[in-house]
Write a structure and sequence with these properties.
Helix content is 27%, strand content 21%. It contains ten helices and 13 strands. The strands form three sheets. Strands 1, 2, 5, 10, 11 and 12 form a six-stranded mixed beta sheet that branches. A five-stranded mixed beta sheet has the order 6-13-9-7-8, sandwiched between helices. A two-stranded antiparallel ribbon has the order 3-4. Strand 11 and strand 12 form a beta hairpin. Helix 2 (43-56) packs across helix 4. The longest helix is centred in the middle third of the chain and has 23 residues, at 142-164. The protein is globular and about 90 Å long. The protein starts with a helix and ends with a strand.
């Protein structure tokens, strides 16, 4: 196939993905229509990329509180997936036939409490560069490459926000930068626009701010059991819970005798199949987005070398409620001499339902100060 034709076909495909049409002698830049009108909704592509997220997100598919896509800017939603209730039936008396009876005895009725939270959408942006060289030779499948990059970026952003979200901007107090302003810590990767600063009260922030913590220290198998007591009734059914921790903590956990003796026998041998233990029936998700920190569970931004200790997050899975906004938008810009840049934006919201959302007890906890 002629290289120029192949190049033009790929460019045409990219333009079609972005929903752009160019007339004769018209170039692709942000001034074609002006005032941002060149941004176009791409609902079909959003559906496709949304379907791809489980490929790149080990966490999101495990959470039942997904309210989907095309949500309005702010929406009061019921908490989906709750498995622990607070409502009980009461004993009922009988009316006496032939006499006047009250319609209802409101004083002894059981009223079912409504568990609701608000999802407030926040905007995020990603850029994907497609080089002239890649278009010229088209080694990988360019269309799939672009979709993969966008889906991977969305998955990592949403997961990291859920785990690490903290909007504190001061010089102290942010769980991701406790000793200097986060904008300084993230100066090379977005500064004040860093994705962890956009939505507040991620799992780590919620647990540390609420003092829903346990000091694990050297790590023992019973530490996991102790952490489950922090969330009370929400830790009753292990299948509803999830431990999330870094590879350093998971590897340390595998050396503990109770787990090692189990997983190193017969067909469960770790060396053979890489099996991760399930402490007291709770699945473990090993995730690189859970950082090493200082002893209090917060990261040092000024002195990264101080971040040497692991942590284990515990979450009651139905507590995390999330969803995406209405418009997924794309713009394609020609960068002369280099290639094309796809700029994609999407809106995302999450919140953690806990005692602040009419639930009875904490729904997240964190074991800190783990020697790894």
């Amino acid at each position: 196939m002629d290289k120029n034709k192949k190049n033009n076909d790929v460019i045409s495909m990219l333009r079609k993905m972005a929903g752009l049409e160019t007339k004769a002698n018209e170039v692709e830049h942000t001034g074609n229509t002006g005032y941002g009108a060149e941004f176009i909704p791409a609902s079909e592509l959003l559906n496709e990329i949304h379907d791809m997220l489980p490929t790149y997100s080990p966490l999101l598919p495990l959470l039942p509180g997904n309210h989907g896509i095309n949500l309005p800017k702010s929406l009061l939603v019921p908490v989906k997936g709750l498995t622990v209730g607070d409502s009980f039936f009461q004993g009922k008396g009988e009316w006496t036939t032939g006499r006047s009876n009250t319609v209802e005895a409101t004083g002894i009725q059981t009223k079912v409490p409504t568990k609701r939270v608000t999802l407030d959408q926040k905007p995020f942006i990603i850029e994907v560069d497609i080089t002239d060289e890649q278009l010229q030779y088209n080694g990988p499948n360019t269309e799939q490459y672009v979709k993969d990059e966008i889906a991977r970026g969305m998955a990592l952003t949403c997961e990291s926000a859920i785990i690490n979200g903290d909007t504190v901007t001061a010089g102290t107090g942010n769980v991701n930068s406790d000793d200097q302003a986060p904008a300084t810590t993230y100066a090379a990767v977005g500064g004040a626009s860093h994705h962890t600063l956009i939505i507040d009260k991620g799992i780590r922030k919620q647990a540390i701010a609420g003092s829903y913590t346990k000091n694990f220290g050297t790590l023992a198998d019973t530490d996991y059991m102790d952490l489950m007591t922090v969330i009370g009734r929400y830790g009753t059914n292990p299948a509803d819970c999830l431990f999330i921790q870094s590879i350093q903590v998971t590897n340390k956990m595998k050396t503990l005798d109770p787990f090692k003796l189990y997983i190193n026998s017969a067909d469960r041998a770790t060396l053979q199949k890489g099996i991760t233990p399930t402490p007291f029936g709770v699945d473990v998700l090993t995730n690189h987005l859970v950082p090493l920190t200082e002893a209090d569970g917060k990261r040092s931004g000024a002195t990264p070398a101080n971040n040497t200790l692991g942590q284990t997050l515990l979450v009651y899975k139905p507590a995390i409620q999330f969803g995406w906004g209405k418009d997924f938008k794309m713009e394609m810009v020609r960068v002369a001499g280099y290639g094309y840049r796809l700029v994609a934006t999407f809106d995302f919201a999450f919140t953690i339902a806990d005692a602040e959302a009419s639930l009875a007890e904490p729904t997240v906890a964190v074991g800190i100060n783990i020697t790894v």
